[in-house]
Design a protein that fits this description.
By secondary structure, the protein is mostly helical. The chain has 5 helices and 2 strands. A two-stranded antiparallel sheet has the order 1-2. β1 and β2 form a beta hairpin.
Length: 116
């Protein structure tokens, strides 16, 4: 896939994709005729990055995780701890969001009754 196709598919700017490559989040993407040609492995790596960002990890933390991953299985315990820590943070965020949603639903029900 070209950088433009990847940009559209993942709703990222081409500048962001180049930046991810520059800072080491993405491995250098091979070029054909001077243009980046993203392969399945590149897309899987990008999907991982986007998932980790969505989970709340900072780019520096994702770089650290990827660096550990390149060191092999000996870093698996540390990587597991990173993921477990982020999982716990997400669970807490979900609890807070659910409380907010419950309160919002309560208020909506009150106003619906007033309107009826």
């Amino acid at each position: 896939m070209t950088i433009g196709e990847v940009s559209k598919k993942y709703q990222l700017s081409t500048d962001t994709l180049r930046y991810y490559e520059k800072i080491g989040l993405l491995n250098p993407v091979p070029k054909e005729n001077g243009k980046r040609n993203y392969q399945d492995d590149d897309l899987h790596q990008l999907e991982f990055i986007l998932c980790m960002k969505s989970a709340g990890l900072m780019l520096e933390d994702i770089i650290h995780f990827i660096t550990l991953s390149k060191e092999g299985d000996k870093t698996a315990p540390e990587r597991l701890q990173i993921l477990l820590h982020q999982q716990e943070k997400l669970k807490q965020e979900l609890i807070e969001k659910q409380k907010t949603l419950d309160y919002l639903n309560y208020k909506i029900d009150l106003y619906r009754k007033k309107v009826e």
